[in-house]
Specification:
Elements lengths: L26 H9 L12 H12 L10 E4 L2 H12 L2 E6 L5 H7 L4 E5 L10 H13 L4 E7 L11 H13 L3 E5 L17 H4 L4 E6 L12 E4 L4 H17 L5 H11 L3 H27 L3 E2 L7 E5 L4 H6 L5 H12 L17 E5 L8 H9 L7 H18 L27 E2 L1
Parallel strand pairs: 2-3, 2-4, 4-5, 5-6
Antiparallel strand pairs: 1-7, 3-11, 6-7, 8-9, 9-10
Helix pairs in contact: 1-9, 2-9, 3-4, 3-8, 5-6, 10-14
């Protein structure tokens, strides 16, 4: 009998929407948090300081915003839950997608339908597969009303090219879908000059709600804080009001100290901006090294462009894995988590079938075991030269080398072009998550 992700398992112990970068809390942020320890309860949706800072954050990214079109919440999960409650209907997602999307849909008793990603990136469904999925869902009596996509993808760490983003968004709007653009990882792009990140709100501002969890870049991942930007239209105002109502019912209210740190971080003062840029450079170097390790072992992986995660496909090593009793992503997750000593979530967490052999790897596991080691990696001109980073890469290479039969414990600085994990056949994948 084919196992599912839920059999014999509780909630996935894999943290927040972002893979944890594992860096120590910035002193300036800790100071803001401590200074606001005695603050009273915040209003639903955030106070004026948070909303004004959020408007400034988006305006610096080319999205002029008024405070009446912004809300804040204690994390992206309750924010998306409230937004979907306000939107109604079923939800379209890419396959794979961030592990935290589907639970919000299921909590509302709705259905999530997946369409496969294209070969070149994750974060968005293939536009033709999206249209076919919408057609099929409606023929079966479903009511698709929204599409959740990501401009910088978890789990793959890839960024959809602008022309593809245009095609997907135009297809979604033509079918009457509201676009929810998850921009949690937009500030973690590895090489700003080489990667063009385009927000759907820049193209179709009347049809896009932008959400972002700040725990990916601006704040420590353990401080729950997220923001949303609604269209400046009548429909946008109605969605905003309904989302606030849902948040009030959930008591999804920011903690006062976190709100103070959030308002400060969203203004992007120099210490925060410097940390964001240094962290992106660090994870770019680590991701390149991990990509080198896994592709040398014969594993498929799209080269990551953002964040601290890679999504790898071990299907080329299926015979060797099967000989070890590993035949699906549930067993692969268990094995790699035990061998690496850190959570390695399998593809079933991200919407792929359990029979796949895909997992998400995090570069955060390479940073070191102490704050001193992590800060050393952050400050190093070449973090790959640090002994603790080299040792972590050696251990990773040994694990994947066992599967491939190479046992190559060396590490390298160059980054080959890995292949992209793909479904065995194009088109609509897999049916719904009910």
């Amino acid at each position: 009998m084919q196992r599912t992700a839920a059999q014999g398992r509780g909630p996935a112990p894999f943290g927040p929407p972002a893979s944890s970068p594992g860096l120590p809390v910035l002193p300036e942020l800790a100071k803001q948090l401590a200074a606001a320890a005695g603050r009273e309860q915040e209003p639903v949706g955030g106070d004026a300081a948070v909303l004004e800072s959020a408007c400034g954050y988006w305006s610096r990214r080319g999205l002029m915003t008024d405070t009446s079109h912004v809300t804040a919440a204690p994390g992206a999960e309750p924010l998306l839950l409230a937004l979907l409650a306000a939107t109604g209907g079923d939800v379209l997602l890419s396959r794979p997608c961030a592990a935290w999307y589907v639970p919000q849909v299921r909590l509302l008793g709705r259905h999530a339908y997946h369409a496969p990603t294209p070969a070149e990136c994750g974060g968005v469904p293939d536009p033709f597969a999206l249209l076919e999925t919408v057609r099929r869902v409606r023929e079966e009596g479903g009511d698709p009303r929204g599409l959740v996509l990501s401009v910088a993808d978890d789990p793959s760490g890839t960024v959809p090219p602008p022309e593809l983003m245009h095609e997907v968004c135009e297809a979604a709007v033509a079918e009457g879908l509201l676009i929810v653009s998850d921009e949690t990882h937009r500030d973690t792009v590895h090489h700003d000059g080489d990667t063009v990140l385009l927000s759907p709100a820049e193209m179709l501002p009347a049809d896009v709600v932008v959400i972002a969890d700040l725990g990916s870049a601006l704040l420590p991942h353990g401080w729950p804080a997220a923001i949303a930007r609604f269209p400046g239209t009548r429909r946008g105002a109605e969605l905003h009001a309904a989302t606030l109502d849902a948040m009030a019912g959930l008591r999804a209210v920011l903690a006062g100290p976190v709100a103070a740190a959030m308002a400060f971080a969203l203004t992007e003062p120099e210490p925060v901006r410097a940390r964001v840029l240094a962290s992106a450079r660090l994870h770019a170097a680590l991701a390149s090294a991990v990509l080198d390790v896994v592709t040398r072992a014969g594993v498929l992986c799209r080269p990551p462009q953002a964040g601290s995660q890679l999504y790898v496909d071990l299907d080329p090593l299926r015979p060797a894995l099967s000989a070890r009793g590993i035949t699906d992503s549930v067993e692969l997750e268990d094995h790699l988590t035990q061998r690496i000593g850190e959570p390695v979530p399998g593809g079933h967490r991200f919407g792929d079938g359990p029979d796949s052999l895909r997992v998400r790897l995090s570069t955060g596991t390479l940073l070191g075991a102490t704050d001193e080691e992590r800060l050393a990696a952050l400050a190093a001109p070449d973090p790959l030269a640090l002994p603790h980073v080299r040792e972590a890469l050696r251990r990773l290479a040994a694990v994947f080398g066992e599967f491939a039969g190479t046992h190559d414990n060396s590490t390298h600085h160059n980054t080959p072009q890995g292949g992209a994990p793909q479904d065995s056949a194009p088109g609509v994948s897999g049916g719904r998550d009910a």
